[in-house]
Amino acid sequence: MLKELLKPFAAEQVADFWAKEFGLTWTWQKPTARIVKRQIEAKDTVSLWLKPNRRFLGFNAGQHINITVRVNGVYLTRSYSLSHAPQKNGLLRITIKQNSQGKVSAYLCQQAQIGDTLEISQAFGEFSLSPNKTNLLLAAGSGITPLMSLLHTATTPITLLYWAKTRAELCFIAELNQLVKQNSFIQVYYFLTQEKQLLDNEFSGRIDTNVIAKFAPNLSDYHVLACGHYDFVTAVKTLTANASNLQVEAFTPIKTTDTVTAEKVQVYLSKSQKTLSLSQGESLLNALEAQGIYPPSGCRMGICHSCSCQKQTGITQDLQNGEVNQEPNSAVRLCVSRAQSDLVLEI
Predict the structure, then answer these.
(1) Are strands 343-345 and 337-339 parallel, antiparallel or unpaired?
(2) 3-class SS at 208?
(3) For 284-301, what is each residue's pLDDT tens digit?
(4) pLDDT at residue 7 greater than cutoff 60
(5) Does residue 203 have a pLDDT over 50?
(6) What is the CA radius of gyration of the chain?
(7) Less packed terminus of the chain by CB within 10 Å, N or C?
(8) Contact partners, residue 256, CB within 8 Å, separation at least 6
(9) Looking at residues 108-136, what average pLDDT do you find?
């Protein structure tokens, strides 16, 4: 009886599998998208415009999607911010900066072509502008992408401070200039850390107390949103502690610097019946991958929950806020959690 009831679902999964294999956007269940436009945004940075199928349910400015691609025969998933607000034509834009370690980013920048089909997720994330406060947006490098989406929806005063190493690495310059021209309440300033000669509206140096004091003198009146690498976001948290509200997202893994780095724990994977010796000083996701175990993952910063699994026994610590989880049979996000004792994980 149960087998008969499950047959339709099995058929749908098989159909989706073959749709992905043949590059089709028509699916029973999974959202997919076809690349319809590709454009260079800056040095080592590319935007892809995607046309999703009907399984995609839409998004809000500031959100992300997971992208799954096959690289060297292995399916890999990573998260990318949607870098433009929702469009009437339904198109999505993701903007990818290639780096030396990102296999998915390298594939999307170098190999993905117009006409290719990508598996995508539904949108997730909670970045949003305040309708009542002045919004201060702080971006470092590719952290501009979710903030760019928000800028296209702005209706109240907003200031963007945008850091990059060089002018060649700044994205969306023409688009930002057009937004400023069309909306008097939007102000944009650029900070270049490795540029010798500066133009109008450009500054040198990294984020510090002087920058915050100059551009947001009454910080308690500001809603602050920041996105960038881990060190940048950590600095923002310290410098804007007095803000009315603060939302941050880091696109690089959380760093651990305490003394437990060398300590090992035994982690039993109940589904695969394997016991591993993992370091306490790194995220469970990184530690598992170092042992050749690759659980599903996406954003790698605790937002999309793609890597969540059941912790059956043991103690973990959240790397973002330091909270300790001792509860058995509870969900744990592998990318932002580390082991504090021997564990049993449902993997």
Answers:
(1) unpaired
(2) coil
(3) 998 998 898 989 888 888
(4) no
(5) yes
(6) 22
(7) N
(8) 281, 282, 283, 319, 338
(9) 95
Confidence of residue 255 (pLDDT cuts 50, 70, 90): low
Span 160-181, mean pLDDT?
97
Nearest-5° angle of CA 49, CA 248, CA 112? 20
Q: Mean pLDDT for the chain?
A: 89
DSSP-derived secondary structure letter, 132: S
- DSSP result, 155-207: -S-EEEEEEESSGGG---HHHHHHHHHH-TTEEEEEEESS-SS--TTEEES--
CA distance 320 to 311: 18
Residues written for the chain: 347
Burial of 194 (0-12, 13-18, 19+ CB in 10 A): exposed
Cα→Cα distances 317→237, 256, 266, 277, 329, Å:
20, 12, 16, 17, 15
Name 167's Cβ contacts closer than 8 Å, sequence gap at least 6. Answer: 190, 192, 195, 199, 202
Q: Is 23 left (phi over 0), alpha (psi -120 to 50) or beta?
A: left
Instruction: Please report the pLDDT score of residue 2 as a whole number.
Output: 44
